[in-house]
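Q: What would this chain look like folded?
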Amino acid sequence: MQYREDIQGIRALAFLLVFIFHLNSSWLPGGFIGVDMFFVISGFLMTSIIVDQKNNNSFSFYSFYLKRLKRILPAYVFFIFLTLLFGAFIYLNRDIWTLQKSGGSALLFVSNLLFARGDSYFGAQLSENPFLHTWSLAVEMQFYFILPFILIFLPRKYLLKIISLFIVILTIYGSIIIFRDQNKSSAYFSLLFRVPEFFIGVFYSLAFKQKLNFNRIFNNIFAISSFVILILSAVFINQNSFFPGVFALISTIATANLLIVDGNFISNLFSKKLSVFLGELSYSLYLWHWPIIAFIRYFKDDYALNVYEIVSICILASTLSWMSYHFIENYFRKRSDLIFKKFLIISVVVTGFLILLLPKISNVKKIPDVYSSPTFGLRSHNQKNIEIFGDRNSKNRQILLIGDSHALTIKPFLDYLGKRNDFSFSTITSDGLPALEGIKKEEINPNHLNFYNDSQNLVNITKQQIFRNKIIVINGVTFVQPKSTYEALEKLAQSLKSDQKLVVINTFPSLDHDPVKINRDFVKKTTRKFNLISHQNNRIALKKLSAKYPNVYYYDLSKSEVFQTAPFHKDTLMYYNASHLNTYGAVSLAKDLEADFMKFFKPIE
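A: My prediction, written as C-alpha cells:
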C-alpha cells in the first residue's frame, strides 16, 4: 500500500486526544476515543495490505505475522523491560505482584483480559498501573491474528455483507450487554466489543478502493464535518457514556471518513511536517507516555498532576519516544528477519526472568508486612473459613465478628482485648461489602461487582455463624452506600433471637492519601500533613439503628486519641493504606480504648 502522510497526521491526532485524557480526564472527557481511531486505522491499513497481496498472489500468513511482530515487538519488549526495572524500585513490595502480573500479561498480549476484572481492592489502582494502556495493543494483536483468516477464506462477493453484519450484530450485542449488566469495564477491554471498530476500517478499505472525490468544496465539507464530529465526541462522550457500543460508531465512522475522502483542507493539515512527524512517533509516544504518568501518580498517591510534572512528562516521553523510534523501531525495520528473531528470543527470555525476579529486587526496600499490608485474620477473609481469636481458653466463646475489610482490620483489636479480658471470638469477613443477605446488585458500582459477588458467596456461611452465636459484632466502612446495605443490616437486627445481641461499630477514620506510599518506611519520615476523613453518615445511621432496637448496641472507634497523630502513633506507621489500620495501629487502638470498650462490652456479655 502506498505511504500516506495524512494517515500519520490522523495518528498524531489520535495520540494527542489520548494524551490529554491521560493527563487529566476532566480536560477532555472523551479523549479515550483516540484509541478507537487507532483501531479504525489498523483495520483499514491491514485490510488494504492483505487484499493487495491476495490480489497479487503474494500473501503469506507467515510473512504477515512476522512483519507485524517486527513492527511492534522490539520497542514493546524494551518498554516492558525498562518499565519493570523502574517499577521494581518505585512500586512498594506489597504491590509488586500487581506489577508482575500486569507486566507478564502485557508481554503475552493478554493484558486486556486482566484489566477487564477491575481494580484490586488492596493493590495499586488502574490509574497507577504503568501497563494499563497495553490493553489496546493486546486487542490489536488479537485482531491481527484473526483478520487474515476472514479476508482470505471468506468468499469475496459476500465479504462486505458479512463485515457489515458483524458490525451491526456486535454493536447491538455490545450495547445491550453494557446497558443490561451496567458493566462498561469488562466491555471496554474486550476484543469482542472492539471488533466493530476494526471492522469499520475493514469495511471502508473494501468498499472504497479509490478515494471519494466529489469536488473540492464538498470534499472539504465532508472532511471538516467528520473532523468536527471527532472533536465533539472527545469533548462530550465521557466515561459514564455507554461506551463502546453504539456511541463508538460515531467517532469510528468519522475517522474512517477522513481516511477515504480525497484532497481537502483536513488531509492537507494532517500532511504537514509536524503532523507527520508526530504520527510517525505516535506508537512510541503511546508506549512511553503512560508509564511516566502512572509512576508519578503512584509515587505521590495523587491523580492530579501539577504544571512541573506535566512539563516533565512531555519532555521525558518525547525523549524516550524519539530514541525508541530511531534506535529500536527503525533499526529493526532495516535488519534481517534472523536478527529480529534472535533479538526476540533473547529479549523475551530476559524480560521473563526480570518478571520472576521482581519480588527479590523489591525486597531491598521492603517495609515489613505488618505495617504495609493486611496480615492478621486473612484465612477467614474472602474464604469460607472460620477463625477464632482472643482467649481460646475462655468460656465466653459465642461472639462473632463479621463485616468488610474494616472488620478484617479490627481483628487484632479484638484479639488483643480478648486475650486480656477473657473472651474469644470467631470471625468471617469479606472485601468491599459485609456478607449480608439483601444487598441489591443493581446498586453496586459496576467496577465493584467482584466484591459484591465474593461477599454474597459468604452469605450462607455467615448466616449459619450468626445463628450459632449470641453476640454479633459488625464493622464496615459504610452502611449507607449502597442504600440496601443499611436495609440488610436492619433486617439482621430484626431477625435476631431474643437472647442475641448486635454490636454495630462505627469504624475508624480514613485518610486522604496512602501514608505508606508517601512515607516509604514504617518509621515517620515525611512532613506531609494528612487529613482525616470521618464517616459521619455511617455514624448517624448506626446510632439510629441502635436507638430503634433494644438488642442493638453502638460503639465508636473513631473517638480514640491515637488518631490525633494519624497516620502515625508514636512516630510509627499505623495505617497500611489510606483506608485501613495495620496490625500495629489496631493494637495501639485496643490499648487506648481497652478500659472504655470493656466498660461498654462487659454488660453486653
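The beta strands are 387-390, 399-403, 424-429, 471-476, 501-506, 510-511, 532-533, 552-556, 568-569, 572-573.
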